[in-house]
Design brief:
heterodimer; A: mainly alpha; 10 helices; 5% strand; B: 301 residues; Rossmann fold; 6-stranded mixed sheet; 5-stranded mixed sheet; 15 strands; elongated
Chain lengths: 265, 301
């Protein structure tokens, strides 16, 4: 029933895998040229030097956290979530006569379509983590990888970040026939601006407004630093931040469904 | 009088669709018998496409509803019903093969062999993406998808649009074959000759309202043309304007032509009284009937 969406994500997946394969191959080819003296990896605060001696003497500061992989994968997955978050809008752009003459209800069709998209986004996340691990391994730096204290929180957070951004994109575009891409692009810019404003020293009332808006801004939950002791998350506890991201995702999908079910002309 | 024991394949009941102050479809009631080929005729903007959209749930009727075999529309019905919109709702980025596969995965009754025979019939290149297809090829692909499930109900909006005469003929043959197999076909077309060839029932919409419906043969039998020639300019007949059986009057120099319902006896009597040089009563074809139904009462050429 959702074969059309499967075709769409399969194409995206093939392109993504080919891109990663090309990048990985280029990296393998360029590694000898870079030479051992340049063969170091800088991630977060940890600096891993190539060479046995250096690795043997690795101190605690040379270790880098697994959360870095999740942060990178989360950002990449969120970008794809934004792109594929216009799937209902694309059906509305002249294809409802096909989508709405299937054997399932509109709600089920839309949910199925979005499920396929979300599964694709999850695949992008996993592939990006694997790609990052492969690059790290080529540098012989996997041994410096450490499972940091917040790793599993960050895994959940960055997976939910992509899901939340998907929900927001669907909610903003499900009723649109055209300009869906523009709306999704502008929404990224607006979210980034509010993220920046959240860190700015604004007057109290403006600060309160920005803080309120950022509760609903997935990017506000995406900040990452392995040296920062006071992350700028909207909520104080991990659980609340994860719950908020999940709620944004669910709310976005629900709003998208409500709009898409009522697109009759 | 016939008694219909089984419910019509499609029963449109008091359907009205308004867009603001514009009434696109006005209180339309039509029963489409099972196994029939039902042609919906009308000028541009008559409400044909809106009617199709309303009965299939693609547009929300202002009032009224459509029943299918006695039941309201529900998703399961699409297992045995196909719709081809006027603008084929195909995905530009996918190939014809992709579309075949999408339908195959969506409908259990999709007949791959049938699809292939239709692809061969229309000469489609399934490797091409839809964006690279001509309008006619897109229509052909949409028709292939519509017929490949061997549906019991086919709703086709301008199915011949963009097709060359050979494939237009193929489409008519497909509809006739489908009906011969027990399927019900509801279709619209601007090509009245095609409707006359394929349809056994017809309804004519004008400005959203139903102006005429029935069996094509009955309509043709009921509708006549009274044509008379005079020595000088044909006189005006005031009584023709008020006669409810006169649909349309055309005057052209010495010739007058009245499109009438029934035998036209009253019209013949009125014209005879004016001593024409010649007069004859002709059968109407569907185009005459259509033009008489949607044209003005008085039409001087």
């Amino acid at each position: 029933m959702y074969y059309k969406e499967w075709l769409r994500v399969r194409r995206g997946l093939i392109i993504f895998v080919i891109t990663l394969a090309v990048l990985l191959t280029l990296h393998v080819l360029l590694l000898p040229i870079m030479g051992p003296s340049n063969n170091h990896l800088v991630i977060g605060a940890g600096v891993q030097s190539a060479g046995h001696a250096a690795r043997a003497q690795a101190s605690a500061t040379d270790l880098f956290p697994l959360s870095v992989f999740f942060a990178i994968a989360g950002v990449v997955a969120a970008i794809y979530a934004g792109i594929y978050g216009g799937s209902l809008s694309e059906e509305n752009d002249g294809h409802l006569a096909l989508a709405w003459t299937k054997l399932v209800s509109r709600t089920r069709y839309a949910l199925g379509t979005m499920s396929v998209d979300l599964a694709f986004v999850a695949c992008i996340f996993v592939l990006t983590v694997l790609f990052a691990a492969a690059i790290t391994a080529q540098h012989g730096a996997l041994r410096f990888l450490t499972i940091d204290r917040d790793a599993w929180f960050n895994l959940a957070r960055f997976v939910l970040l992509a899901a939340a951004w998907f929900g927001v994109s669907q909610a903003l575009t499900a009723s649109l026939k055209e300009r869906s891409g523009t709306v999704r692009g502008v929404s990224v810019a607006i979210a980034a601006i509010f993220l920046g404003l959240g860190a700015a020293n604004l007057p109290a009332h403006w600060g309160a407004l920005v803080k309120f808006v950022n509760y609903f801004n997935p990017l506000a939950y995406a900040t990452y630093s392995d040296v920062q002791t006071q992350p700028l998350y909207p909520f104080a506890t991990w659980g609340l931040n994860l719950a908020a991201l999940a709620a944004i995702a669910a709310l976005g999908v629900t709003l998208a469904l409500v709009q898409w079910r009522r697109l009759e002309t | 009088m016939t008694i219909q024991l089984e419910a019509p394949a499609i029963d449109i009941r008091s359907l009205t669709k308004s867009y603001g102050t514009t009434v696109a479809v006005n209180n339309l009631s039509v029963a489409i018998p099972k196994g029939s080929i039902f042609g919906l005729l009308g000028t541009n903007g008559a409400g044909k496409t809106t009617t199709f959209k309303c009965i299939l749930g693609l547009a929300q009727p202002t009032s009224g509803q459509a029943m299918f075999g006695g039941y309201p529309l529900r998703p399961e019905l699409f297992e045995s019903m196909s719709y081809m919109p006027e603008q084929p709702a195909l995905y530009d980025c996918f190939t014809g093969r992709d579309h075949i596969d999408i339908s195959r995965h969506s409908f259990a009754k999709f007949d791959t062999a049938r699809a292939q025979s239709l692809v061969d019939l229309f000469g489609l290149d399934l490797r091409k993406k839809v964006r690279a297809l001509s309008k006619g090829q897109k229509s052909a692909l949409a028709l292939t998808l519509a017929f490949a499930t061997r549906p019991e109900i086919l709703v086709l909006d301008e199915p011949s649009s963009g097709l060359d005469p050979v494939h237009q003929r193929n489409v008519l043959d497909l509809m006739i074959d489908a009906a011969a197999g027990g399927a019900t076909v509801l279709f619209s077309s601007h090509q009245i000759g095609q409707v006359e060839r394929a349809a056994d029932h017809v309804a004519i919409l004008h400005r959203g309202s139903l102006v005429l419906q029935g069996l094509v043969e009955d309509l043709k039998a009921e509708e006549k043309i009274v044509e008379a020639t005079f020595d000088g300019d044909a006189p005006r007949f005031g009584e023709l304007d008020t006669n409810p059986n006169v649909r349309r009057v055309m005057r052209q120099g010495r010739l007058i032509r009245a499109y009438v319902t029934g035998t036209g006896d009253g019209v013949v009597a009125a014209i005879t009284a004016a001593s024409p040089t010649s007069m004859r009563i002709l059968d109407q074809n569907l185009e005459d009937i259509f033009l008489a139904a949607v044209g003005g009462k008085q039409d001087v050429l």
